[in-house]
Design goal:
Helix content is 29%, strand content 32%. The protein is α+β, with helices and mostly antiparallel strands. The chain folds into two domains: 5-49; 54-130 and 142-158, Beta Barrel (Elongation Factor Tu (Ef-tu), domain 3), CATH 2.40.30.170. Strands 1-2-5-4-3-6 form a six-stranded antiparallel β-barrel. The longest helix is centred in the first third of the chain and has 24 residues, at 26-49. It starts with 5 loop residues before the first helix and ends with a helix. It comes from Mucilaginibacter terrenus. The chain crosses the membrane at residues 28-50. Keywords: Membrane, Transmembrane, Transmembrane helix.
Length: 170
C-alpha cells in the first residue's frame, strides 16, 4: 500500500489552503521588519555611545614619603608596562575599606620604574590619595594593601567590535 496517493495529496494541497499558507498578511510582515530594524538601529547607536573601559589589575600597597605624603606602589607585570603612562587614572580599592560599598579612591600614576624586578614585575608609584580622612571615613594608613585598577582604554563598545574585524589575520 502506497504511503500517500495522488488523490490524498490533491486534497491536502487545495488552492484555498495554498493561498493561506503562501501569502502571509502584509501588515504583520511590515510591522515585524520595521520592529527588527528599529531594534538593530537602537543597539548600534547604544554600542557607539556606551563606553567600555579596559583596566589592568595590580596589587597595591600604601607607603608614606619622607614629606608625609601618602603614596601607593603598584606591581605591574612586564607585559603590561607598555600600556601605562604617567598621569593615567587609577582606581584604588583598599582591603581595609572593603565594606561592600563603592570605596574606590581615585589617583594617578606619577612615576614608572625603569628597572624590571624579580618575576618580571615593575613598580609604579601612584599619587593623589587623600592624606586625611573625611567625616565618617577611616584614615588611610601606610601599610594598607588592596588592588589598583589602572584605566588603559575607554573606547566605545562599537569601536572595540569593529577593531576586532579590522585587525583580523589574513
Amino acid at each position: 500500500m502506497p504511503i500517500d496517493s495522488t488523490r490524498d495529496l490533491q486534497r491536502r494541497n487545495s488552492p484555498e489552503l495554498d493561498e493561506v499558507i503562501s501569502k502571509p498578511p502584509p501588515a504583520i510582515i511590515a510591522w515585524g521588519i520595521g520592529t527588527i530594524t528599529v531594534i538593530i538601529m537602537v543597539l548600534v547607536a547604544l554600542g557607539g555611545y556606551l563606553e567600555y573601559p579596559t583596566f589592568i589589575n595590580a596589587p597595591i600597597h600604601l607607603n608614606e614619603e619622607a614629606n608625609g605624603q601618602l603614596t601607593a606602589s603598584a606591581q605591574i607585570a612586564e607585559r603590561d608596562i607598555s600600556k601605562i603612562k604617567s598621569g593615567q587614572l587609577v582606581y584604588v580599592h583598599l582591603n581595609a575599606l572593603a565594606d561592600g560599598g563603592n570605596n574606590d579612591l581615585r589617583a594617578a600614576i606619577s612615576t614608572i620604574d625603569t628597572v624590571v624586578g624579580k618575576n618580571g614585575i615593575i613598580s609604579v608609584k601612584v599619587t593623589g590619595l587623600p592624606n586625611t580622612s573625611t567625616a565618617g571615613e577611616p584614615a588611610l594608613l601606610p601599610g594598607m594593601s588592596g588592588e589598583a585598577k589602572i584605566l588603559i582604554s575607554r573606547a566605545s563598545l562599537l569601536h572595540r567590535v569593529t577593531e576586532q574585524f579590522i585587525h583580523l589575520p589574513k
